[in-house]
TrEMBL record:
Signal peptide per UniProt: 1-27
Keyword Protease in annotation: yes
Name of the protein described by the UniProt record: Subtilase family protein
Keywords: Hydrolase, Protease, Serine protease, Signal
CDD domains for the chain: Peptidases_S8_Subtilisin_Novo-like (cd07483)
Organism: Chitinophaga filiformis
A GO MF term: serine-type endopeptidase activity
Domain Peptidase S8/S53: 67-505
The keyword Ion transport is annotated on this UniProt entry: no
Annotated family: Belongs to the peptidase S8 family.
Domain of life: Bacteria
InterPro entries linked: Peptidase_S8/S53_dom, Peptidase_S8/S53_dom_sf, Peptidase_S8/S53_subtilisin, Peptidase_S8_Asp-AS, Peptidase_S8_His-AS, Peptidase_S8_Ser-AS, Peptidase_S8_subtilisin-rel, Protease_P7-like_dom
């Protein structure tokens, strides 16, 4: 998720700005394997999913079926060495002929579709957050909503929530921005001292740790920067990477701080896409560019699920017989309900069995559109996997959209899994940023320092967030389906939930996310009370005998070829 490192830098930096003379020690835990999320505690001492153990002990010699997973996200590097061979190819579309060969309304949708695209090939990169959009929509309708709206009405209550999200944070941003400018100045001074001492422009924590000098200025700078690195939780991070992310965060903070109270966000969508954002039936818009210029998030998510296994390149994904369909609908900012609803329908109509949704927001003005799409996926037997969010909040108390609870109060969707983020045990047990909820988060999965594919053709990197935890669950779901393709979405969810395991080292209490001084039983953070476990899920699926008592409406699925290695 964007800015996780920057926020860690902020916390660590502010601490050090008030206590530079403290005596911290940069104590890294023993190295965490890059593929820790695929490993298991008994053999590797990490809170992994047991994927590698499952391949070694349960799946040898067994035949699998290819599974299509849709990733609704920001885009994907279609040329990446570890992903290009696992991209879904629409069998009914002739690439590049400018004709809608399959008649689905989307021309040349070879690898998926871009609902953020325009007819001229451009794409929406940045969009405002939903709270801000709604805040200015209500203001434009009523002028002064505080006096125009009935104080007892639902709309006034909604307006008050919007004010809390938009007005107060705007003021807070100004204060935070000023603080961050001071931190930036401290970073620059430390950078100058360290690069001058090392006679090199970049460095990492290990290089810093090796510095020993009587120059007290250099030693203070060393301690300052080591604490910054420590707070990121990423052992292999370079200073240049950290600095880049912090500057991006600072630029975003400046934009928020400078936004006047009466300045509505600029609507770039109208210029680029040109659809009627308030008409769900105006659905044939966008373009076929699922790559674009800002696909870090979607590329990283896709690699977790599907990076080619055992090809001696980069990383191994979870499933060795999977295809990725990219449906681009998530900008830098909050996704639109219309795009999400149509993206889900597109994925379902084109044969996806699992849909990963690593995004979310606190307001959903057209929830009924998304609800209808979720119900459609439910009817068609498609599992939806959604990230719980990164605010350290209780989803039982705060809104997080989309979700499986329908606005019309009909029965909750039973094809929907919401995922919180856990650590390796070495870098924390439960992610401090993860949302949780005994009623509204289903399961936890690895989501801290997950190493995966990133744009650039042959590049890889770490990222943290429930955005990384969701594709771990989506990947495990697809793995179970590969060997038990007749399972319904409901059966698949049951298997994942029933096979979830407690923390493997026997720990029962963890630090409550968002509350560093509070302990809570791990079992109280989610419905299942456990971590996703691929090994146990496959064992349970075997015991259920997928061919027995399976009652599902069969639907036509796109044919997929087995994944070729290399």
């Amino acid at each position: 998720m964007k800015s996780n490192r920057a926020m860690a830098v902020m916390a660590g930096g502010v601490l050090w700005m008030t206590a530079l003379t403290a005596n911290p020690s940069y104590a890294q835990s023993s190295a965490t394997p890059r593929n820790w999320h695929l490993l298991n505690y008994a053999q590797d001492s990490v809170y992994g999913t047991g994927v590698e153990k499952a391949y070694a002990e349960l799946l040898k010699g067994k035949k699998s079926s290819p599974i299509l997973v849709a990733v609704i996200d920001s885009g994907i590097d279609t040329l990446h060495e570890d992903l290009k061979s696992v991209l879904w190819v629409n069998p009914k579309e002739i690439p590049g002929n400018g004709i809608d060969d399959d008649g689905n309304g989307y021309i040349d949708d070879v690898h998926g579709w871009n609902f953020l695209g325009g007819k001229d090939g451009r794409s929406v990169k940045e969009d405002s957050d939903e709270a801000t959009r709604e805040y200015y929509r209500i203001k434009s309708l009523y002028g002064n909503p505080d006096s125009a709206l009935d104080k007892q009405s639902k709309e006034y209550s909604y307006w008050q929530k919007l004010q809390g999200k938009v007005s107060r944070p705007s003021g807070e941003s100004k204060v935070t921005y000023k603080t961050m400018l001071k931190l930036q100045e401290s970073l620059r001074k430390c950078e100058t001292l360290i690069t001058g001492y090392l006679h090199q422009n970049d460095f990492n924590a290990a290089k810093l740790d090796s510095i020993q000098t009587p120059d007290q200025d250099v030693m203070v700078a060393k301690k300052f920067l080591l604490r910054i690195f420590e707070n990121t939780g990423e052992a292999n991070l370079s200073y240049s990477e950290l600095k880049s992310e912090f500057e991006e965060y600072l630029a975003d903070l400046k934009k928020k701080a400078e936004q006047a109270d009466n300045d509505a966000p600029v609507d770039k969508r109208a210029d680029i896409i040109g659809d009627n954002v308030n008409d769900i039936n105006d659905k044939y818009y966008g373009n076929n560019d699922v790559m674009g210029q800002f696909g870090f998030h979607g590329t990283h998510v896709s690699g977790i699920i599907a990076a080619v296994r055992n090809n001696d390149i980069g990383i191994d994904g979870i499933n060795n017989n999977v295809r990725i369909m990219m449906v681009k609908a998530v900008p830098d900012g909050d996704e639109r309900d219309k795009d999400v609803a149509l993206a889900i329908r597109y994925a379902v109509d084109n044969g996806a069995r699992v849909v990963n949704m690593s995004f979310g927001k606190g307001f959903s003005p057209h929830k009924e559109w998304v609800d209808a799409a979720v119900k459609y996926a439910e009817e068609k037997g498609v599992l939806l996997v959604h990230a719980a969010g990164n605010d350290g909040s209780n989803n039982d108390e705060v809104d997080n959209f989309p979700n499986p609870d329908f606005a019309d109060h009909s029965a909750r969707a039973n094809n929907y899994i919401t995922v919180g983020a856990s650590g390796s045990g070495k870098n924390g047990k439960v992610a401090s940023f993860s949302n949780y909820g005994k009623k509204n988060v289903d399961i936890f999965a690895p989501g801290v320092q997950i190493y995966s594919t990133v744009p650039g053709g042959n590049k890889y990197g770490n990222a943290s967030g429930t955005s990384m935890a969701a594709p771990v669950v989506a990947g495990v779901a697809a793995l179970v389906l590969s060997y038990h393709p007749n399972l319904t979405a409901q059966q698949l969810k049951y298997i994942l939930m029933k096979s979830a395991t407690p923390l493997p080292d026997g720990t029962t209490e963890v630090t409550k996310p968002g509350s560093p001084d509070v302990k809570i039983p791990f079992a109280e953070l989610s419905i299942s009370g456990g971590l996703v476990n691929a090994y146990e899920a496959l064992k349970l699926a075997d015991s259920m005998d997928a061919h027995k008592d399976v009652k599902e409406k069969k639907k036509k699925k796109a044919k997929l070829e087995p994944v070729k290695k290399g």
